[in-house]
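Batch job 17 of 40 flagged for manual review because the log was empty.
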Amino acid sequence: MPTDEQIAELGLALDVFARRFKLMDVASGRPLAEVDKQILLYVDKNPDCGPTDVARFLGVATTTISSATDRLEKRGLLARHRPDDDRRAVALSLSPEGQAYVAAQRQAYTAMFKTMLERLSSAERKSLIAMMTKIASYES
């Protein structure tokens, strides 16, 4: 069982980590909410997916996705259309501006991850990645 001291140390380390590696919004204009960024990243990997698919993947309510897709469509980053095979459904795709935004985000993430890993030895990199994977895959 973790001690109170270990919990406090982890909290401090994560605070410093978040400040040090805060990923700035790489697109010009107003920054996007994190859920909006995640929607764009998901739609990029899953073109023509439906809002329910996105909600399920992100673990949020479909109403949250509906509001977010409205915002993203108004900003010209996302397009909604009706598939020919099911006119009742809605499919999501990135606009050219959305594709450019996702490409810039991926490039920024890659640079940030490279900076993080450069400071570690090969063994430390493997260990960090294994620990982060273990923590991220924990189901409560």
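Reviewer: the log was empty due to a logging misconfiguration, but the result itself is present. The chain has six helices and two strands. Unflagging and moving on to job 18.
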